[in-house]
Each structure stands twice: as structure tokens, then as C-alpha cells.
Amino acid sequence: MAKIEVLKREVQILSVKHDDYICITDIARYKDAERTDYLISNWMRNRNTIEFLGIWEQINNPEFNPIEFDGIKKDSGLNSFILTAKQWIERTGAIGIISKAGRYGGTYAHKDIAFEFASWISVEFKLYLIKEFQRLKEEEHKTLGWDIRRNLAKLNYRIHTDAIREHLIPPELTPAQMTLVYASEADLLNMALFGKTAAQWRSENPREKGNIRDQAESAQLLCLANMENLNAHFIAEGIAQPERLQRLNQLAIQQMRILTADDRRKRLEAGSRGDAEGAEKSGVEG
Predict the structure, then answer these.
(1) What is the distance between the alpha carbons of residues 267 and 278, in angstroms, rounded to a whole number?
(2) What does the domain layout of the chain look like in residue ranges?
(3) Are 197 and 186 within 8 A, CB to CB?
(4) Is the pTM of this model over 0.85?
(5) 97 φ/ψ sector (left φ>0, alpha ψ -120 to 50, else beta)
(6) ∠229-230-236 over CA atoms, to 5°?
(7) Per-residue pLDDT tens for 95-123?
(8) What pLDDT does 269 receive?
(9) Are 82 and 40 in contact (CB under 8 A)?
(10) Which contiguous run of DSSP H or E holds residue 27?
């Protein structure tokens, strides 16, 4: 469950089978906080709304009941016609609108439908809703990208520890002694990339949560993933730890120069485009 704020109103967003459903009950509160169900029902009794909902379902829902839909569309021209979200779902098997009970209860609609409802409530609200929804999606994509890189580092860590277990830990070592070897190799990578061990970082940052790798930037995590693979290869070749540290440090320096230079280049290009657009705009206004 995610939330966005639109014109000082909180709007909840529900993820259903990888699709986003926006709470149209929250949207209705912008117009009348006391009669949200009435507003939704009033919108749904409109013939144009019925046709829109029916077309959406026919495109996206193979289980949609077209016979019931035709009957509802025919009745929508009558003054006595009333249709609630629950009735629409039960009669047609619709999936574009769902009713949810409980703590986060209310009527939710697929984003395509929710934007249409928001337009009926207020064009201004719809535009701000779309803006905030897009901002949320951009933030989610950034977080997802970081998680993928973090998970890649964790996967390579498994490869790394397997190499340590196979080539560096004799069978007679106790579990406590094995832990020391793993920690030593982890700190080998920390020293090569960050210039300090995990204990040194914790001593310097007592108030920070997590560990030195949890605070790493995406470029550092990508570099770390590459280093773990290479160190596993070095271990298998029987290269001593001091030489591995030197090689990995040189690799870290080289890769971070490339990665950070690429980030700076992208920022400079973005800044140049912004300057160019600003200059063009000034020229037009002048």
C-alpha cells in the first residue's frame, strides 16, 4: 500500500497483480468528504461512464460478461437507473474496479479508470493526481534499481564465500575460526574499495544504521559485485591475500573512476540541456 498527497488530500494506491489501483473514495473526498459512495454511484450511472468501463473491461478482462454489460448500458438511459461499484463487479465480473474492506477499505479503480473519475471530480485534481502518481513511480524505479544492485552484490557474496570455504578453510577448523576467515576476506574487499574495515567504519559512524555496504552508493555496489567475482577467481588460483588486496584495490580505483566519470558526464549533459533550454526560452521572451 502506497500513499501520495494531492492538493493536501491523501490518496492511497494499491498494487494488484502488478497493476496500480487508486482509491477513488479518496478522490471523491476532494469534492464531498461526507458523500463519497454517492458520488461514485452517481458517476457510474452516467451512460458515458458505463461505455468507458465496458470498453476497458473488454480490452483487459477476458472473463468480462458482455451480456450483463449490454443490459446495464441499456438501463443507464432511465432516470431510475442506479449502479454501485459492488453491483457492477458482481453482475459483470469486472476487474477494473474493486471494493476493499478493512483498515484500507474503500473503492479502488485501475489507474486508467481512476484518472477518468478524477477528471469528473475536478480537472485540476486529475492533473495533480497524475503528476504525483508519476513522481511515485519514478521513486519506485530508483529504489528498485538500487535493490537489484544490492541483490547482485549479495549473490556475488555467496559465490565469494563458497570460494573461501572451498580453498581457504581446512576441514579441521572450528565454526568460530571459519567465521574469522570469512570476516577477513570481507574486510579485504572493504579495504580495497572503501579504504577501511567494517569495524573501522562502525567506530567512525556509531549513529549510522546497518553496515558500511548498506551505506554504499550504487556505483560502489556495482564495483563490489565485480570485485567479489574476481576475488573468488584469485582465491581459486591460490593467490596470497596481500597480492589479492593490491590487485583488487587497483581494480576498484579503475572502475570507480569510470563509473563516477560517467555519472558526472550525465549530470553535465543534463545541465547543458537545461542551460540551452533556458537560453532558448530567454531568447524567445526577449
Answers:
(1) 16
(2) 2-121, 142-285
(3) no
(4) no
(5) beta
(6) 95
(7) 999 988 777 789 999 999 999 999 999 99
(8) 53
(9) no
(10) helix 24-29
